[in-house]
Amino acid sequence: MNDHKIIFTGPVGAGKSTAIRSLSDIAPVSTDELATDITAERKEQTTVAMDYGVLKLDGGETVHLYGTPGQERFNFMWDILTQGGIGLVLLINNSRPAPFTDLHFFLSAFEKFIDTTALAIGITQMDKADSPTLDDYYRELPAKYFNTPIFEVDARQRHDVVILVESLLFSLDQCLEA
Amino acid sequence: MNTTAEQDGFQDNDAPVRICLRGIEGLGRKSLAFLFSTQANRRLELVDEHPDAITIIDVDDYRGKAAWKEIQSREPAGRPTILLGLDAVAQQGAVALQKPFRTKDILAAIDSLLKARKPEPEPAAARQDSPKRAQDATTRVEGTGRRPRLSAHAATSLNERELHAFVGSAADVDLDDPAARASIEYSPHRFLAHRLGDLVLSATREDKYLRLSCCDAQFIVDPKKRCIHTDVEKSRLRSLGALPMAGEPARRQKLSAFPDESESQKWQCFSWEALIWRMALACSRGRLPEGTNLDQRYQLKRWPNLTRLMLFPHATRISAAWVASPLSLKEILNRLSLPQRYVFAFFSAASAAGLLVDAATHPPADTMENTSKQQPRQRRGLFRRLLKTLYKKQGDHRA
Fold first, then answer.
1. Residue B384 touches partner A, C-beta closer than 8 Å
2. Are A5 and A85 a contacting pair, CB within 8 Å?
3. Which domain holds residue B99?
4. CA dist., res. A175 & res. B26, Å (int)
């Protein structure tokens, strides 16, 4: 039986763990621990390994939901994590000091994976920081990502996360429902 | 889980009684609109056209006479109608009111028509607000005889009333037949959504606050916050969007700063994309702006912010197709095999919001590196099952 996976990535506090919790059929296996480094200034707990959730499909198939570790010292895991993945959901926290820097960092880190699959971007915390706007993000995207979906997202809202995943799938195959 | 209507910051509460006026313009129309807006115990809403609407016709007016003839020929079984006239006579199930009449007379006539309506018995099982019911509603409205599709995302939480109000229920027409084509067109310049869309374009270009006064309402486009301030209550916005503005003089004013008046500070502020999108759906109801060239190619400048918009069936899929490459309406209908009204509703909303533009004015896709990838076809089955699971659970999570 085939198992498949969707990868959630983004900087610390972008909502990866929450987004997986919003979608998962099981209580997500979270490896959040008390933050002891600079991360502690942003959130009390941070993901030191990875988050894991599951979507069970009719017929017994499983789609695994993986959240990448929020700390850069775990970057070595990303290549392994993405192998065979359906696509990438990138969450950017708009209230961080330099969200565009985060954007470019993750686009660059996952470039190979994105180039062979698809990308959907969710901007979180826009209620706290309304700038940059979605239009600003589109202007900032490298030209090759011009058709990437970018939405304002509240990771706690399943509705929002579903639209992100839905747009990811339709970006890959617009004839999906035909 | 929020319903789609709530998601964009707007909300429809109790079902309103829809009223459609024929042959009543100018002062008469305004007087009735004012009367209906003051009825706290009845939610009376003026609409352009709706299958469930009560129609009020002034038979002394030539347009009213024509409308009544049309109703008689189109619906011999009759529809709830009030005939106003100096010598109006009740006929074919219609209530007559002789002029001059008092406000309580017309309200009593509306009440009598409402009482005469036989509510359709609803099976007990269907009364529960279950995802199954929502799915059925979507499927039933399709009415195309095609195999039921996975309805697109929050489509499953759109109820039939919202579908009627925002996407309509028109069947596909032969687009090469001029008469059929005319039946699915509307004049965009007569509707507020498109007027506001133009205003947003100007405000952005000039980086100025712009005020629009019309329909007894005020709108100020705020280019800084990318929003529209208005004194209109949420509950009135849809009907305001659905009604043509014909005859209403609109005043447009450039402001050097946001007015400091205490009253305007209390106005509500809506994302312009969400407000225009919603109002354009209300006026389009699955129709096309007149004069739209079906062969001209359009492209989305970017994805609509679907998580914060009134989402209707297939909107995500249409977005994906129109953002990936320039397509004409004929091409997109052909590629996606969708009922026309969904594509036309999307076209109206996205073009009014300034997102869907003439492909000739947009950088052609072939100058950019198109990264769209088609994963192997064998994954299509997986994606379909994944979507089905997401939609099913979306319904399960409804509050």
1. yes
2. yes
3. 4-116
4. 48
In chain B, residues 359-378 whose CB comes closer than 8 Å to chain A: 365, 368-375
- Give the number of other CB atoms < 10 A from CB of residue A37: 9
Q: Is A63 helix (H, G, I), strand (E, B) or coil?
A: strand
Pick the CATH number of A3-172 from 3.40.50.10170, 2.60.40.60, 3.30.390.30, 3.40.50.300: 3.40.50.300
Q: Which helix (H) or strand (E) segment is B356 a member of?
A: strand B356-358
Tell me the β-bridge partners of A150. Answer: A121
How many other CB atoms are found less than 10 A from the CB of residue B25? 15
Residues from chain B contacting residue A150 (CB–CB below 8 Å): 302-303
Chain B neighbors of A22, CB-CB under 8 A: none
Inside any domain, residue B370: no
Asked whether residue B266 is domain-assigned, the answer is yes
B-chain residues near A170 (CB < 8 A):
316-317, 319-320
Instruction: Report the percentage of chain A scoring pLDDT > 90.
Output: 65
Q: What angle do CA B190, B322, A159 make, to 5 degrees?
A: 90
Q: Any idea of the CA torsion for B141, B147, B152, B158, to the nearest 10 degrees?
A: 20
Pairing of strands B54-58, B17-22: parallel
* B11 and B111 belong to one structural domain: yes
Structural domain ending residue among the three candidates B86, B116, B146: B116
Cβ separation B317–A174 shorter than 8 A:
yes
CATH number at residue B99: 3.40.50.2300
Nearest to B323 by CA among A159, A66, A145: A145
Q: So what's the pLDDT on residue B112?
A: 83
Exposed e or buried b per residue across B322-360, where buried means at least 16 C-beta atoms within 10 angstroms of its C-beta: bbbbbbebebbbeebebbbbbbbbbbbbbbbbbbbeebe
The answer to whether B344 touches B184, Cβ cutoff 8 Å, is yes
Domain boundary (B261, B279, B297) is at: B279
Q: What count of other Cβ atoms lies within 10 Å of the Cβ of residue B119?
A: 5
- State phi, psi for B352 to the nearest 5 degrees: -65, -35
Which segments of chain B have a pLDDT < 50? 1-3, 5, 11-13, 120-156, 366-372, 396-399
B56 touches B20 (CB < 8 A): yes
Tell me, yes or no, if A151 comes closer than 8 A to chain B by beta carbon: yes
Q: How many CB pairs under 8 A join A and B?
A: 153
Determine the 3-state secondary structure of B127 from DSSP: helix
Query: Nearest 10 degrees: CA dihedral of B270, B274, B280, B283?
Result: -60
Does residue B341 lie in a domain region?
Answer: no
Could you give the ipTM of this predicted complex?
0.88
Rounded Cα distance between B112 and B118, Å, is 12
Residues of A in contact with B337 (CB under 8 A): 178
- At B142, which helix (H) or strand (E)? helix B131-142
| B327-374 tens-digit pLDDT | 999 999 999 999 999 999 999 999 999 999 999 887 655 444 444 455
Per-residue pLDDT of A62-112, as tens digits, reads 999 999 876 555 566 787 888 889 999 999 999 999 999 999 999 999 999
Domain ranges of chain A: 3-172
